[in-house]
Amino acid sequence: MWEDLTNTLDKLGEVYDKLANLGERKRNALVGIDMTGLSNILDEEQLLTAKLQKLEQRRVEILNGLSKSNKTVTESTRAEEFYRAAPSPEMTKRLLELHERLNRNVARTLQIRDNNRVLAQCALDAVRNQLNKLSGAAVEPTYSGKGGDIVTHQKKFDLKA
User: Fold this and answer.
1) If DSSP codes are grouped into helix, strand and coil, which group holds residue 160?
2) Phi/psi at 70 (nearest 5 deg)?
3) Per-residue confidence at 15, pLDDT binned at 50, 70, 90?
């Protein structure tokens, strides 16, 4: 079981690393307004996310199995403490290294995701503003109750039959 946990943590680290690299490619696609590239990246991201969910589920199953054999483990036990219960010092060292790598990769992936979210929101705002200009919309000098702009559309054509 401990070896399965090691392998699963290693694979999780790899998937998060791939997601971070994909996030960097996504940033470049967002900045370059490369919609075809962005579509391909989103497809790849979906596959990696599905793989990530399976690995996380497997990790939880392994941890549940290992925790049943160790009665000192509770829900509040930290991962580092749990890994120290491994059968050998080498295994403990490897698990702690993988845990640290996973933490770094997850943090990097989340940072890139947050940056991309800001870029995507700015791009959507720019598109919305351009559409409003094209449609002859006017933005009121106040905000709506939800903090958004109040946009009114002027009638360009007034046909009376």
Assistant:
1) coil
2) -115, 105
3) very high
Q: What is the pTM of this model?
A: 0.71
Fold of 2-153: Methane Monooxygenase Hydroxylase; Chain G, domain 1 (1.20.58)
Burial class (CB in 10 A: 0-12, 13-18, 19+), 30: buried
pLDDT tier at 81, thresholds 50, 70, 90: confident
Q: Could you tell me the residue ranges of all domains in the chain?
A: 2-153
Instruction: State the DSSP code for 154.
Output: P
Tokens of 16: 């998060």
Burial label for 88, CB within 10 Å (0-12, 13-18, 19+), is: exposed
Cα 161 to Cα 158: distance, rounded to the nearest angstrom: 10
The residue type at 157:
F
Residue 29 to residue 3: CA distance in whole angstroms: 39
Which residues is 23 bridged to in the sheet? none
SS3 for 138? Answer: strand
Residue 143 has φ and ψ, to the nearest 5°, of: -110, 155
Residue type at position 17:
D
